[in-house]
Amino acid sequence: MRLHEGKGASAGAIAGGVVAGVVVLAAIFLYIIFYRRRKAKQATLLQSSEDSTQLAGTISMDKVTPSTIVGPSPVAGITVDKSVEFSYDELSNATQGFSIGNKIGQGGFGAVYYAELRGEKAAIKKMDMQATHEFLAELKVLTHVHHLNLVRLIGYCIESSLFLVYEFIENGNLSQHLRGMGYEPLSWAARIQIALDSARGLEYIHEHTVPVYIHRDIKSANILIDKNYRAKVADFGLTKLTEVGGTSMPTGTRVVGTFGYMPPEYARYGDVSPKVDVYAFGVVLYELISAKEAIVRSTESSSDSKGLVYLFEEALNSPDPKEGLRTLIDPKLGEDYPIDSILKLTQLAKVCTQEDPKLRPSMRSVVVALMTLSSTSEFWDMNNLYENQGLVNLMSGR
Fold this sequence. Notes:
With 398 residues, the protein is an alpha+beta fold. It has two domains: 84-167, Phosphorylase Kinase, domain 1, CATH 3.30.200.20; 174-381, Transferase(Phosphotransferase) domain 1 (Transferase(Phosphotransferase), domain 1), CATH 1.10.510.10. The chain has helices spanning 2-40, 88-94, 132-142, 174-179, 188-207, 264-269, 274-290, 308-316, 321-326, 339-352, 363-373, 382-385, 389-396; strands at residues 84-85, 103-107, 110-117, 120-127, 153-157, 162-167, 212-214, 223-225, 231-233, 240-242, 295-297, 305-307. Strands 1-5-6-4-3-2 form a six-stranded mixed β-sheet, sandwiched between helices. It has a two-stranded antiparallel ribbon with strand order 7-10. A two-stranded antiparallel sheet has the order 8-9. Helix 7 (274-290) packs antiparallel against helix 10 (339-352) and helix 11 (363-373) runs parallel beside helix 13 (389-396).
């Protein structure tokens, strides 16, 4: 009798377990159906890769919301929480049908147009569908990273073409101010402030974001100047990201960027780390001093050319470095410049452009170095802010 009771209890337990399992499986099945239906209502930017940057499949325009653009790509799913979706018609009307009269720039990934949208001045970058990877990269960065010295993204559109809408920075870019026609010469104090602003923007994406971002195309043309002569870093289409605490990308990354600003380890091997941006920033510092392009030709017709890094190293290695520098200083500065300050900025640029990336300072150190050269800088405890003792001695005049 007890034996039969035991068998009955066992059978009941088994039956109960089977029923419970079926219930759990049913619940999971229902959840998956619900989840898939919910995801189907969200717009998807489909597969993109380093070797294929075409937008595949379809994008349901009537279901894209300002809150979500999600999809598989080398850049993780994008949550657009601080930008606005615009319609193609609205952008077209604001630019008079993307007219030549509204065109204010041309970049590697598309044209830029001036517009007034919803009471705000804006710059609209119109990108080809083939530039999907760059579009995703820039959207990813600028919807998650917000800083005074980074250009602000207002919104986007994915009808007919790919569009990114930025705040309009009315005073052009640094390259135009240094070498363009019709611009007032930048004072030495203004140049130091522009360098400091740009450095702060880079420091932010290198050290204060999760994940860490690497711009990969720092140059004077990508530093915008506002009406108060304050600088903002722009053009994040080539940006790479690393994991929290990471310092470099895998070796062999596809090399993109601008010749003259690339460090040796990146140009030769595709090695990417924040020190790639530090090197390029050092070249920008040389531009601020000389107003010369990153690559200087001997004559207009000559194919012989030298980089600014080489020219400034020659000057610093001359018997009298200050006199050597005077041959490179922007003539627009006239005689109104502090040669000691120029020498220090040159030495900072040299540290930034060291061939060995390990010898280059972080952007945090560069920011503090520039603070000491700025007329508005306060007294800082240099030893607490620098991790590079050589840079401490350099900027302290020791």
